[in-house]
Amino acid sequence: MFRWTRDISAGEEAQWEASFALAEIFACFHEQPGSSEIRIEAFLQDGEQARRLVELWGGEIDEIGDQDWVAVAAREWLGYVLPIRDRFVLTLDDRAEFLEALRAAHPGRELLIFPPGVAFGTGDHATTATCLDLLVAEAERGGVAGAEVLDLGCGTGILGIAAAKLGASRVDGLDNDPLAVAAARRYWETNGAPGGARVSWAEADVLCWEPEQAYDLVLGNLFSDILRAAMPRIRRAVREEGTVILSGILGEQAGGVVEAASATGLRLDSRVDAGPWTTLRLVVAPET
């Protein structure tokens, strides 16, 4: 395992976060006590990839042990709490005493418990948090209770698990990373195997997969180029009265995703911008 580090100026985090997201590399950002600088740490299995980062972006690398350094670095998030409307409280801290206090402090809200690990989607990222917000809004419209939901690129399964807590009758999660699929199954149990939903987590590449049925709600937190390429499959996966919520999209790339969606018969209903990221709500366009 290799660790890449670099110090940046405060205020540059969004730009660097976007760069790491596009490179599909997990990175942690740490405030430096007594300094205006932010330290970035990225953890990589491949020494050649680590050296390539130095060539591209400067910084330093050192070889470290084989323990889960992503989880070690993420300990800074102990105590992290994010309310999602009036429905959920997301926490990255799974200490029993902390969860007990959190439930007492937020009566009427359900907990989403996602301690950081190797899969993307613990809820602290703007794309996941915005998807959760739109998912709760969808539930408030009556669009989740009893619905059949597809979570594309499910990562930790956070969106599918939240949908089950909101009353979905079925949740199918797909990811091309077997570690993510295993993580989604673990987080499903961590969160109490919520509701009466039928659930499945499976390994599949969204660019090769073919939907076996249509769903009421399709969720996808993926990169823009993947979303554009997969859009015909996404359209085939949603029912005529269904809804699609997509994120992982940089703001300047949103137009291309909307254009690809329009070509398949999906229409932009609304968009939410959070920093450099955009989340889209799409519906099936009426036939003319």
Note the main attributes of this structure:
7-stranded mixed beta sheet; 9 helices; 2 domains; alpha/beta; 288 residues; single chain
Could you please describe the fold and organization of this structure?
The structure is a single chain. The protein is an alpha/beta fold and 288 residues long. The protein folds into two domains: 2-75, 2-Layer Sandwich (Alpha-Beta Plaits), CATH 3.30.70; 120-284, Rossmann fold (3-Layer(aba) Sandwich), CATH 3.40.50.150. It is built from nine helices and 14 strands. The chain has helices at 13-22, 47-57, 69-73, 96-105, 126-140, 158-165, 178-190, 224-236, 254-264; strands at 2-9, 27-31, 37-44, 60-63, 81-84, 88-91, 110-113, 148-152, 170-175, 198-203, 215-221, 238-250, 266-274, 277-284. The strands form three sheets. It has a seven-stranded mixed β-sheet, sandwiched between helices. Strands 2-3-1-4 form a four-stranded antiparallel β-sheet. It is globular. The N and C termini lie far apart (56 Å). 36% of the residues are buried. The mean pLDDT is 85.
Low-confidence stretches: none
Structural class: alpha/beta
State the helical fraction. Answer: 25-40%
Distance between the termini: 56 Å
Mean pLDDT across every amino acid position:
85
Record the SSE blueprint.
Layout: E1 2-9, H1 13-22, E2 27-31, E3 37-44, H2 47-57, E4 60-63, H3 69-73, E5 81-84, E6 88-91, H4 96-105, E7 110-113, H5 126-140, E8 148-152, H6 158-165, E9 170-175, H7 178-190, E10 198-203, E11 215-221, H8 224-236, E12 238-250, H9 254-264, E13 266-274, E14 277-284
Parallel strand pairs: 6-7, 8-9, 8-11, 9-10, 11-12
Antiparallel strand pairs: 1-3, 1-4, 2-3, 5-6, 12-14, 13-14
Helix pairs in contact: 5-6, 8-9
